[in-house]
Specification:
This protein has six helices and seven strands, in the order ααβααββαββαββ. By secondary structure, the protein is α+β, with helices and mostly antiparallel strands. Strand 4 and strand 5 form a beta hairpin. Helix 1 runs antiparallel to helix 2 and helix 3 crosses helix 5. The chain starts with a helix and ends with a strand. Bound molecules: adenosine-5'-diphosphate (ADP). The site of adenosine-5'-diphosphate has 21 residues, from helix 5 and helix 6.
Length: 249
């Protein structure tokens, strides 16, 4: 009948509109990533000049300067170093999910590599790391490694003074998803900071001067989303944090 015909036309129009919106979104996203990458490359050059200039100033002229002058050179040099780290982090962020294809990834193997890469920090703080059985999933190997590496290195970095870090990694299956957790007994995160920590360059300012670019968890968020999953955290200040993430099985 006429009614059904109309319904189908309307349905098709909606589907077309949705497809177009999806394409627009993808294009905007690509453009943004390109923008970030080009921008970062262009920022690197003047930054290198600033670093070089401050080094030369320090090397050749610092003997003519008073302590205040030397201090200013140090400020410039340190700030330039931090900016270089931020630019690299941004570049790294824009590259997540590019140039890679999904494959079977044995997460046990991934974790073995991550633990090996972090061996120095693990030994330095005598951390205890327990890794349960882990599955093999379809995903982006390099990115999954980065995901676990960021979570594990945060668990080590934000440990409590005088307490041996005890970090546990486990998972369970929930229908067609795996839910992983990385649990630590570190300093924890205050409730008001919880919603912001996954944003790019977002750091919690504590009076401890822990180094970091504030991009690690933004990487994690992007990687998990790349796998159509999500990441969240439970934490109790002074007791510890558990980062959970859900990936398609
Ligand atoms: P970075 O570590 O470079 O500052 P991240 O994006 O990895 O940046 O983390 C954002 C913030 O979240 C950190 O500044 C830190 O305060 C907090 N955080 C992350 N992981 C933990 C953890 N396991 N325990 C306590 N705080 C954490």
């Amino acid at each position: 009948t006429m009614g059904t015909l109309l319904d189908i036309t309307a349905l098709k129009e909606t589907a077309d509109k949705l497809a177009k919106r999806q394409l627009d979104l993808e294009m905007a996203n690509n453009e943004l990533e390109q923008f970030v990458s080009i921008c970062s490359h262009d920022l690197k050059e003047p930054l290198a000049t600033i670093r070089f200039g401050s080094e030369m100033l320090d090397k050749n002229f610092s003997h003519q300067l008073e302590s205040k002058g030397k201090e200013y050179i140090r400020y410039i040099h340190e700030a330039a170093g931090r900016l270089a780290n931020q630019i690299n982090a941004l570049l790294e962020h824009s590259r997540i999910g590019q140039n890679s294809e999904k494959q079977d990834v044995d997460l046990k193997q991934v974790l073995d590599t991550v633990v090996m890469d972090l061996a120095k920090s693990i030994n330095d703080c005598k951390a205890k790391i327990s890794i349960g059985k882990l599955p093999t999933i379809k995903g982006y190997e390099v990115e999954l490694r980065l995901l676990f590496q960021n979570l594990l290195s945060n668990a080590l970095k934000y440990c409590k003074k005088g307490v041996t870090p005890d970090i546990r990694i486990s998972y369970f299956k929930d229908n067609d998803h795996y839910i992983f957790s990385v649990n630590d007994n570190g300093i924890g995160i205050e409730e008001i900071d919880l919603e912001n920590i996954f944003k790019i360059f977002n750091k919690i300012h504590r009076n401890d001067n822990i180094e970091g670019t504030g991009i690690g968890l933004a990487h994690c968020d992007k990687i998990v989303k790349l796998h159509d999953g999500k990441i969240w955290v439970d934490s109790q200040p002074g007791v510890g944090s558990t980062f959970h993430f859900k990936l398609k099985a």
